[in-house]
């Protein structure tokens, strides 16, 4: 636990964005993963540096599943992971930033592994995130694994080098979505109060840690987060997400983020391109 795991095992290019420090098998299909959270981060620590954002938990759980798939289930490096579903509930009282970087543990259980030949083609896993023995979050994740040739056929020849970007429109005021920098705002206003255009900056060092040929899932979740912040006028903070990803969000087409419904502490956010639904996310919120 004195260094991060190899960055390629969690599909990261920057060591600074690699959150995991080790792992071990504890039982068949069960694993202990150790992590470290920095005390400051461009996106995943509150602007006043007092609290970790729940999306840091999401990224930690995502990296944990990717790490275990590669190291314990022999999914080759170079395979692509397609996120199908991500459900997480966090407990903000355990997300305070302390005097030292937090060192959470992630207890991972692979509950359904589907094989194609000798290697997994899809999997579902659960994760309990603990900090000093306290439960920080519970998550349930499903993903698909694709080899490079299969992925390229699926993507119809799209590559990061050939992708073209939709021009960036001016975003919402940063303070309205709990951000400091305009460059970190991912929503642009439209003529409807419940609809925004997704701002996709492929030069963003966190969302695009490495070149991609599509909009990453973490950017879509950030859009749901910012929509909830804006819609509730900062009175409620996102604490949970239940997202289903239906298809790739392409870089060369506008993506629209819409508030589909509101029911008490939950908001339904939907992303669309043209007539297609890209993802839908139920955002759970809590009063500030």
Q: In terms of topology, how is this protein built?
A:
Elements (H helix, E strand, L loop, with lengths): L19 E8 L2 E6 L18 H19 L7 E11 L14 E12 L2 E13 L2 E13 L1 H7 L32 E3 L5 E4 L18 H15 L4 E10 L10 E8 L2 E8 L2 E12 L1
Descriptive notes:
This protein has 288 residues and is mainly beta. 14% of the residues lie in helices and 38% in strands. It is built from three helices and twelve strands. It has helices at residues 54-72, 148-154, 217-231; strands at 20-27, 30-35, 80-90, 105-116, 119-131, 134-146, 187-189, 195-198, 236-245, 256-263, 266-273, 276-287. A twelve-stranded antiparallel beta sheet has the order 1-2-4-5-6-3-9-12-11-10-8-7. β11 (266-273) and β12 form a beta hairpin. It is globular. The two termini are 34 Å apart. The mean pLDDT is 96.
Short description:
Helix content is 14%, strand content 38%. The chain has 288 residues and is mainly β.
Which overall shape is indicated by the principal axes computed on the Cα atoms?
globular
β-strand percent reads 35-45%
**DSSP summary: helix tally:** 3
Low confidence ranges: none
Global structural class? mainly beta
Instruction: Report the biggest beta sheet as strand number plus sense, adding barrel if it closes.
Output: 12 strands, antiparallel
Lateral arrangement of strands in the main beta sheet: 1-2-4-5-6-3-9-12-11-10-8-7
Task: Estimate percent helicity.
Answer: 10-25%
Order of helices and strands: EEHEEEEHEEHEEEE
Alpha-carbon Rg, integer: 18 Å
